Each structure stands twice: as structure tokens, then as C-alpha cells.
Amino acid sequence: MTHPPTAANTPQTPAWSEADLAGDPHATPDKAERVQAMFEAIAARYDLNNRVHSFGRDVAWRRRAVTAARLRPEDEVLDVACGTGDLAEAIASATPRPRRVVGVDFTAGMLDIARAKSARRSLRVPIDYRLGDAMALEFADGSFDVLTIAFGLRNVTDPPRAVAEFRRVLRPGGRLVILEFSEPGFAPIRWFNRLYTEGIMPRTAALLARDRSGAYRYLPRSVASFPGVEVVGRWIEDAGFVGLEQTPQTFGVCTIHAAEVPKVGNAIANTADSGATNGTGRP
Length: 283
What we know:
The chain has helices at residues 31-42, 46-53, 57-68, 86-92, 108-120, 159-169, 187-209, 215-224, 229-238; strands at 76-80, 100-105, 127-131, 144-150, 170-181, 242-249, 254-260. It is of the alpha/beta class. The chain has a domain at 28-183 and 228-260: Rossmann fold (3-Layer(aba) Sandwich), CATH 3.40.50. Helix 2 runs antiparallel to helix 7 and helix 3 crosses helix 4 (86-92). The longest helix is centred in the C-terminal third of the chain and has 23 residues, at 187-209. The chain starts with 30 loop residues before the first helix and ends in a 23-residue tail after the last strand. 47% of the residues are buried.
């Protein structure tokens, strides 16, 4: 297995400086290394910050994402960018219970916490956590029935390539669920959300996490500069998914995108974007 690059940043060198975030962080050539360094820095208090700064709504959003996945007892589920395992655990504890749950993330520190959490809890289905890259998943074509990703798509270097890779590893009739931050459409809500995410949250979250990586300055910039819901929907449809449904959560602060692989025809993704031709995610 080819592991993602090791983060070059040190604790004394922020992953994201104010100058870095003055432009579009998604256009940064070394975005992958910066994101990896950022998550290594905040892993220990990542869950606490999620609960505090979403006012506990992140739990409900993940629960709704699990509902959107329409799980069945025979399903094999892949949770990409699984982080500390919150969504993977919600899937493993769901009713009906899936047959298999695999979590993939490219930050070793986040996976360490996910494994420790899983070991402390009596999950209905054990979770197989693995280090991996969303754009080059180490699974054969048509390996899973459901693929989920929560708040991770905007952190990928090439999101359309990742979505095409999601299509590749899903079977005919397989379901895709993407939970991602978005900007509220209603102007007063959008103004208040920006005030909170750009003015208040970066300071309080950094204090809570004792973070010097710039992670919580990156978050609002990564959301504001990420393509809108319509573009994400186009990536999903261009990858070959059908039946797209996009459901805003909490006034549009985030959106659940759900679609499926056609039940008939070739289950193998159109790999022109992903470059995968041999069933391994590698060209």
C-alpha cells in the first residue's frame, strides 16, 4: 500500500498562515500535506471542538447521513475521510446492521483516536480502520454497497477525481452519501453564519484545541472558497451516479448529497477522471 506523504510541517510552523488563507486554500499546490499536518495537530480535541462549535448538531447531521444511506443487513460500507470515526461508528451501530464497515483516512493521528474509541465501545459491527487516500482507494472495483464521506470532500486535492473513485468502488445499486459544509442561501442566515465561522469560532476553537496549525482559520476559508452545492451535484452526476438528492441541514449550514450507481449496466466507473484502469485505484 502506498501511504500518503508525511506532513512536512512542524508544531512551530503553522500548516496555514494568514497569508496562505488570503487566497483560495484549495489552489495551494501542497494542500494535501498542509491538511494532513493540520489534522495531526488538532486530532486530540477534534471531537470536543465538533460538539462545542456545532452546538451538538454534528451528531444529528451524521445520523441523518446514515438514514440517507438506506442501510441493509448485507451491506458492505466504506467511510472515506473517516477521521476519528464518528460516522463509521454511527453506521456500525445502525439498524439494520450492515455486514461490514471500513474506515479510511490519510491522517494517522486521527485513525489512532478512532481505533481507541472503537476499542472502548461495544459496537454491533467491528470497524476496520485503514490509512488511505480518497483519490486512490486501495480496493477493487465494485467492492462496496455504500460509501460515505462527512466533511472531507473539500479537503481532497481533486474532489471530482475522488467522486469518480467513489463510483469505481461501488457495486450496481450502490449508494453514495456526501455530508459537506455549504453556505446558507438566505442572506441574514448566511451573514450570521459567516460572522460565527470567520470571527468567533476560529478563536475559541483554537484556544480549546491549543492549536497553532491554523486549522480553525482554514475551516471557514475552505467552506467559503469551495464550489457550491450545484457544482458538487454536477461532480456526482458526471461520475455516473443517478437519482441525486441534495438536502440542506440547519438552514443550509451543511448539505447531504445522496445518489446511487445505476442498478443495471456496467458497475465500473468511468475512470477517465480518476485514472484508475486496473481495479486498484492506480493507473
